[in-house]
Design goal:
With 85 residues, the chain is mainly beta. It has 1 helix and 4 strands.
């Protein structure tokens, strides 16, 4: 999935590319994380393609919440097509 298809949230909102941010921990450690922005239907589609049964909903202006359970056994799940890039 390319950055052009990754969305922030509902209609009327600008699509945002993935963002790398640095997060500090209470112990002083720091980590870089990648934020991915999806609309609920985009995330549902992506997880379904990867072998999950997701239930995703909007939980705030910029927050999604949900659950996902495997539809097929782990050993039979295919790797993402873009995993090597």
């Amino acid at each position: 999935m390319g950055a052009a298809t990754i969305g922030a949230r509902g209609a009327g909102h600008q699509c945002l590319p993935p963002a790398t941010v640095r997060r500090g921990l209470n112990d002083g450690g720091q980590h870089r994380i990648v934020k991915m922005f999806y609309r609920p239907e985009e995330l549902t589609t992506r997880l379904t393609e990867l072998g999950w049964a997701p239930e995703i909903h909007q939980a705030g202006d910029w927050l999604l919440a949900g659950t996902a359970t495997p539809r097929i056994p782990t050993a039979e799940r295919r790797a993402p097509a873009d995993a090597s890039s």
